[in-house]
Design goal:
Shape: globular
Number of helices: 26
Strand content: under 5%
Strand order of the largest sheet: 1-2
Order of helices and strands: HHHHHHHHEHHHHHHHEHHHHHHHHHHH
Radius of gyration: 25 Å
Number of strands: 2
Structural class: mainly alpha
Distance between the termini: 40 Å
Oligomer: single chain
């Protein structure tokens, strides 16, 4: 079956109406469906990690954030590769193989989550492998850019990127639903601790009995539990009792801190401990779930899309070696566009990865704490929808103004998060505003994603091959967003109990990116109005 098209001239109106339009829209339809699965499988780990402690996986808070962060690291690396392979292998081969290879991480994760003894290093490998899905964007989007005429590029790219981004919401929305569906294997028991009830148990139990039971826990696990205590609280307690003995430190902690840290460290261990303190208590809640279904449901869809990609996609005859494609790096606008896209898509992807764990570790310790997965999918959903809508707007008003507006929106959101203490919360009363601000930031990232991808083909209009390469490159660097956000926010929360420092850094970066966009692409008389 022939892979390469004989010719491709989308700016020729006769060619477009007679031949090009049908092929382009068919390609967009298939590649967009596969891109949905790419994004969904890329973010699979961000939704699974919040369930791992309750299933008996004894990973630390930092390790959980690492599992959410590594897919972003992998995607950034793989997107750099994807940036240069399209002219070499063509749309048909790239999309088909990229869809097929995602079976490796989803099947691997499906089996790994069924065994709480699965070592952390194996989960890290599987988390890295989910980056296959994140890498696709940097070849899929340049491909779409080549298939459509200039007047439809913003619309086509907005549709593909926006609908493709829905994959993030799909992963976070479908996961809670399929946990009750037995696709394969036996159910696992998920344990949750009600902090309010646990606090009552500690209040009604003697300190001597608490110390005696805590001392029977393995020393390594004792340290893991106490590692969840805020450093200031730990220092204050150790100083007041003049001791660093783990058991004495534990019983000297405030009631609410005891209840929180034992749940955060390991709910299964907390179950054993609390049952010994008070048999038949109401603090421990167990529920059977099919955690493996969160991964296995992708398998048939990936197989179907692999077949469709092979039989219905073709490739545009535009070949260039990797060396020839490196010319994009001699253009200063490649670097300016990289900064602006890190602000838009980097923030979208970064918040998507970190949002569930932020809910869990910033607000999960309060009474009546929210389930992260009930809220997490709304952000990517809003960001994806606004990207689609504003793809059409970008074609009418230009992309640069939308990118500037996005910078102001993200900046305003970050300022509110810091100034109102929403990422260093003291009560659940702050949670609604926290969610509202994060969702607002997601909305603006979608606007900016549409704006930037309208800008790039115009900024590099003198060379469409370069324009495609820049789209791939900027997307590659922005794909590090999940790694940067999850890693730095995780470290921030672990060290300080909140994420103020991270969002202050985001404020400074957003000011830089917005200024660059306004100066070079948006202001009157700018160098590259777009």
């Amino acid at each position: 079956m022939k892979t390469w098209l004989d010719k491709w001239e989308p700016e020729d109106e006769k060619f477009w109406n007679e031949t090009g339009s049908k092929i382009a829209w068919r390609t967009l339809f298939i590649t967009t469906l596969t891109l949905i699965l790419s994004f969904a499988s890329w973010f699979i780990m961000s939704v699974i990690v919040v369930k791992l402690p309750g299933l008996g996986f004894s990973y630390t808070k930092n390790q959980l954030f690492w599992l959410a962060a590594v897919p972003g690291l992998a995607a950034g690396i793989l997107r750099i590769i994807h940036t240069f392979i399209l002219p070499i292998f063509g749309t048909r081969h790239v999309v088909t193989f990229a869809t097929l290879i995602k079976l490796l991480p989803v099947i691997g994760i499906g089996f790994a989550v069924m065994n709480p003894a699965t070592p952390f290093w194996l989960f890290m490998i599987l988390a890295f492998a989910t980056g296959f899905g994140g890498g696709d964007f940097s070849s899929y989007m340049p491909s779409t850019s080549l298939f459509f005429p200039k007047r439809l590029k913003g619309t086509a790219l907005g549709i593909q990127a926006g609908i493709g981004n829905f994959g993030v919401s799909l992963a976070q929305f479908v996961t809670p639903v399929v946990l009750s569906v037995a696709l394969y294997g036996a159910p696992s028991t998920f344990t949750k601790i009600e902090v309010k009830e646990a606090k009552q148990i500690f209040a009604n139990t003697s300190l001597e009995k608490q110390a005696e039971l805590f001392s029977t826990i393995e020393t390594k696990k004792q340290k893991a539990i106490l590692s969840n205590v805020d450093s200031k609280v730990m220092d204050s307690v150790c100083k007041s009792i003049n001791s660093k003995d783990n058991s004495q430190v534990f019983v000297s902690l405030p009631l609410n801190v005891k209840a929180k840290i034992i749940d955060n460290a390991n709910p299964k261990l907390a179950q054993i401990f609390l049952n010994k303190l008070h048999q038949g208590n109401k603090a421990v809640i167990n529920k059977d779930i099919y955690i493996q279904s969160a991964a296995f449901w992708y398998v048939p869809l990936l197989i179907i899309m692999t077949i469709l990609s092979w039989f219905y996609l073709r490739s545009i005859p535009m070949k260039a070696s990797i060396k020839e494609q490196m010319d994009i790096f001699s253009n200063k606008h490649t670097w300016y566009c990289t900064i602006t896209y890190v602000m838009t898509f980097g923030t979208f992807a970064g918040l998507s990865a970190a949002f569930p764990l932020m809910i869990k570790f910033l607000y999960g310790e309060f009474p009546d704490a929210p389930d992260p997965l009930k809220y997490a999918f709304y952000g990517p959903l809003i960001g994806s929808a606004s990207r689609i809508v504003f793809g059409f707007v970008a074609d009418k008003v230009g992309g640069a103004i939308l990118t500037t507006i996005t910078g102001l929106g993200i900046l305003g959101g970050a300022v509110i998060l810091v100034s109102q203490g929403l990422v260093t919360p003291t009560s659940m009363e702050q949670f609604p505003l926290f969610v509202g601000v994060i969702l607002m930031m997601f909305f603006f990232t979608g606007v900016g994603n549409a704006g930037t991808f309208r800008q790039y083909p115009i900024i590099f209009s003198e060379n469409q091959r370069q324009a495609a390469g820049v789209i791939g490159w900027t997307a590659a660097i922005a794909a590090f967003g999940p790694f940067i956000f999850a890693f730095l926010i995780g470290n921030n929360i672990t060290a300080n109990g909140g994420a103020n420092q991270f969002f202050i850094g985001l404020i400074l970066f957003t000011i830089l990116a917005t200024t660059i966009n306004w100066w070079f692409y948006n202001r009157k008389g700018c160098e590259k109005p777009s």
